[in-house]
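Teaching assistant's notes for section 4

Start the section by putting this record on the projector. Ask students to predict, before seeing the second block, whether UDP-N-acetylmuramoylalanine--D-glutamate ligase will look compact or extended. Collect guesses on the board.
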Amino acid sequence: MTTKQKIAILGAGESGVGTAVLALKQGFEVFVSDRGRIKEKYKNKLGEIGVEWEEEIHSEERILSADVVMKSPGIPDTAPLVVKLKEKNIPVISEIEFAGKYTDATIIGITGSNGKTTTTKWTYHILKNAGLNVGMAGNVGDSFALQVAETNVDYYVLELSSFQLDGIESFRPHISAIVNITPDHLDRYNYNLEEYVASKFRITKNQTEEDFFIYDSDDELIKSWLKDHPVKAKELPFSVSQKLENGAYLEDNNIKITTQNTQFIMPKSSLALEGQHNTKNAMAASTIAQLLRIRKETIRASMESFQGVEHRLEKVLKINNVLYINDSKATNINATYYALDSMDTETVWIVGGVDKGNNYAELLPLVNEKVKAIICLGVDNSKIFEAFGNCVELMSETQSMAEAVQMAYKIADKGNAVLLSPACASFDLFENYEDRGRQFKDAVRNL
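Reveal the predicted structure now:
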C-alpha cells in the first residue's frame, strides 16, 4: 500500500484553503495551520471538505513531519518555523508552485511593483472578449489552486507578487511580463533592492526559448538586471521613448506592436485609461493578446471598453465641486507618484500606514506643486511629517478613515481634489488595502 504524501499548509486564507482543496483532490494527507484566527468562511470550507485545521498555534512537530509545506505569501522566510523547515530540507513552496503542477493550461504570469493588477485584468478582459476559456488568479479573484481543483480552462492569467515568486521551483509561464520595478517591500528583502529585483525576475527563471518575456525597456532597474542576467525566453520589450523592432512602442501617438512578424497599430487616444503608466499597461496586455493571435478588432475594442481596477485612481464622488479619489491600492512611493502626477487641481492628500522602507524625497516636487494639505492616516506618521513638514501649510494626523475624510471635507475648496493615496501598507488600521478603500468610499458617501 502506498503511503499518502503529507502536505502542511501554513496560513488559512484564500491561497491556503485553495491549496487544501486541490491537495485533497490530488490524494495528499492535508493539515492546515494558522498562527492567527481563521475567518469563518474558510473554517466552513475546511470543515466541508473534511480537512484538519488549527488556529492561533503551529503544531511544530506535526508540520515538521510533512513531505512538503505550502506557505502563504504573507509569512516571511525568516519566520522561525520556516527556518526550521528549510534546515530539515523540507520543500517550502508557494500556492503558485503547487497548483502549477496540476494544470495543462497555457499560463500567462504578470508581475511588477505597480500596474500588475491593471495589466492582469486588462489581459483577462481581452481574452474573455475573444471567447477564450480563461481563468484569472494569483493576487486577484479566487485562488489559483482552487480554480485548478474546480474548473478546467485553457488559459490562466496570473497576477504574481514577489512573495509568491519567492516560493517557486519549477513553475513556468509560457508568457511572462514584468511591467516595472520600483523599490517596494524592502522590509521583506533586508532593505536590499537587488534581492527584490531578483525576486521579480524569478518569473522567467524556468522559461525556455519557446516562451516569451515582456518587459518595460524604459525601466532602468529591469535594463540593468538584464545586462548581467540574460533570459532564455524570447524578449518583447515595450517603450514610450524609443522605437523597437520587436515589441511595443509609441510613435505619433499610436501604439505599434510587432510580434512574430505581425504588426498591430492602435491610437493611444482610444485607450479606456489615462496616464503614461496605463499606456504601458495597455502595451503589455496588447502584446500578450497579439502573441495569442487574438483578432486585432477584439484587441482594439477591449482596449476601449476596459473599466479599470477598484481602489486604483477610482473617482468616487464629486461633492461641492470637490472630487474624491480612491487610490488605496497605492501601497508604495511609485504608485503614489503616478497618482499625484495625474492630479490637475490643488489636492488634499491622505497618506500613511505601515512604512515599507519608503524614501519620500521622490515625491517632494509633486507635493510642492500640487498638494495644499496633508492628512496622515497611520499609527506612526513621523517620517511623513519629517519629509513634508515644510512643504504645506496644513498637516494633521488622524487614526480613523471617517475622521480623515471629515477633515478633508473641511479643508478642500471648490475645484480641489481629495486623494487617498497612502504610499504605505494598510495593516496598522485596516484589514487590507481593499478594506481601507471601501472605508474611504463609505466615509465620502456619508458626508
